[in-house]
Amino acid sequence: xxxxxxxxxxxxxxxxxxxxxxxxxxxxxxxxxxxxxxxxxxxxxxxxxxxxxxxxxxxxxxxxxxxxxxxxxxxxxxxxxxxxxxxxxxxxxxxxxxxxxxxxxxxxxxxxxxxxxxxxxxxxxxxxxxxxxxxxxxxxxxxxxxxxxxxxxxxxxxxxxxxxxxxxxxxxxxxxxxxxxxxxxxxxxxxxxxxxxxxxxxxxxxxxxxxxxxxxxxxxxxxxxxxxxxxxxxxxxxxxxxxxxxxxxxxxxxxxxxxxxxxxxxxxxxxxxxxxxxxxxxxxxxxxxxxxxxxxxxxxxxxxxxxxxxxxxxxxxxxxxxxxxxxxxxxxxxxxxxxxxxxxxxxxxxxx
Length: 352
Known about the structure:
Elements: H1 3-10, H2 21-30, H3 33-52, H4 61-84, H5 91-115, H6 122-125, H7 133-147, H8 150-153, H9 156-170, H10 181-186, H11 188-196, H12 209-223, H13 242-263, H14 270-276, H15 279-289, H16 301-307, H17 314-331, H18 343-351
């Protein structure tokens, strides 16, 4: 065969079958280990945030500052990623996906009511236990996405502007943790921003990584000038004053660049990416080992350390965060444990 013929063969381009380009690009995005790594480190921040906010660390200024730093962006970024991977679906597929969220929501809400809540009332029944608010809010957001007309969804400026206005205004109304209404509308802009960014690259070139690190450190350093927990960052309650409105607006402004910076500095390995794919299981199970009350099913390391008279300092918190994360990773290695969040899937697998 002549050389020019070989070159001609090398120049042949293989095109995917017509209509499959988007499917393949979406699949590639779903398998992006970088996003899975971000999800894992976000879970670590969720664990850290729930440990740092406990009363045992109330006297530590460093814990309060780190808590503020985490809460400025970690849940907005989680919500953003949820929106990034959300799509309109046919109705059967959509309701199946909703049921997969409702199932762990109901199961672990019942666990919370039975073992962690002091007294059961109408309010506690309709208030998602502990971190389960996110599952209920995710249902709301996906319902909105499914039923809002495409004409509106495709107008990026309109959907984002409308979501931001609603988010700011919802704090003026007396909605709190009940049915997760306040958090749903307060964090809604990040979900739709993620949806609108679904076809965009989320990562910067590596040359910007040092700048991202510096920016995150600068924000952390500035927060030391106010070493008290800013509870408005929970997005769980209405404003008590104009201060609440200002905090929400400033948090919005900071959350976006901090999220971008954080995504671009997350360390990634195959193991980290694998753990990130189990972020929902981490999210649900961590509540059992870091409960909001002091009557857990599984005694958390915090209570053990407290009974051993270990000083509750920032460094103690770091050790507990690391050990808790490692412990959860070991628990999730047990066969079928991670499937217990959706028992129906486990039953189908066993019967199948």
